[in-house]
């Protein structure tokens, strides 16, 4: 029974993410079709490290973080969910495009929830589960590409490669690993789902 109830909470969380009114604030500094370069404001994230392929890691990481925001914290407080849920490869990899494109789906992942902007590091409840950590992500410049679909690993790889090619051609330099972001509930029709690949960058000169 507890598993059934928790599954209901998980699906409710996805629904909240899909209809969330709050997303991280950013300013679009460049736009080219489905690709944008955005300057993001600092945010606070709750995150956890998980192991496995992307699909399995996403599910297990989501459950751990959902448990935290649904009240498994020192204040027993519920925290509103925002979008997106992000997944980042935790293993260090060479930042050249061929290595990035051929990396395995298996490995260590960091799954993150963005905390609502009303919370601060001082007011956020402390997680009871030591697997959940809270940290501030400084403001950053991210190159992004948006696409629809079920968000399979193969599709993410293809979109990441496309975004990396765009970055190389437009006078930006990659400064960190790619993040895979999902904004919608799993039962939403695939063609209507919003997915993004986000890559930290910095400008290297005038755009070509």
From TrEMBL:
<keyword id="KW-0732">Signal</keyword>
<dbReference type="InterPro" id="IPR006917">
    <property type="entry name" value="SOUL_heme-bd"/>
</dbReference>
<dbReference type="InterPro" id="IPR011256">
    <property type="entry name" value="Reg_factor_effector_dom_sf"/>
</dbReference>
<protein>
    <submittedName>
        <fullName>Heme-binding protein</fullName>
    </submittedName>
</protein>
<dbReference type="Pfam" id="PF04832">
    <property type="entry name" value="SOUL"/>
</dbReference>
<feature type="signal peptide">
    <location>
        <begin position="1"/>
        <end position="17"/>
    </location>
</feature>
């Amino acid at each position: 029974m507890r598993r059934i109830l928790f599954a209901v909470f998980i699906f409710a969380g996805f629904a909240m993410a899909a209809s969330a009114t709050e997303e991280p604030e950013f300013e679009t500094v460049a736009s080219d079709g489905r690709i944008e370069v955005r300057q993001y404001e600092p945010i606070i994230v709750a995150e956890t490290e998980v192991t496995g392929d992307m699909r399995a890691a996403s599910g297990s990481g989501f459950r751990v973080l959902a448990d935290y925001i649904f009240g498994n914290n020192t204040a027993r407080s519920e925290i509103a969910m925002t979008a997106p849920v992000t997944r980042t490869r935790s293993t260090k990899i060479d930042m050249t495009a061929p290595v990035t494109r051929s990396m395995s789906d298996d490995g260590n992942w960091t799954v993150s929830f963005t905390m609502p902007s009303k919370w601060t590091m001082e007011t956020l409840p402390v997680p009871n589960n030591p697997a959940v950590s809270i940290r501030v992500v400084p403001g950053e410049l991210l190159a992004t590409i948006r696409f629809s679909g079920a968000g399979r690993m193969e599709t993410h790889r293809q979109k990441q490669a496309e975004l990396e090619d765009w970055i190389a051609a437009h006078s930006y330099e990659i400064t960190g690993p790619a993040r895979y972001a999902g904004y919608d509930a799993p039962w939403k029709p695939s063609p209507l789902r919003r997915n993004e690949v986000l890559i930290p960058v910095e400008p290297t000169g005038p755009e070509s």
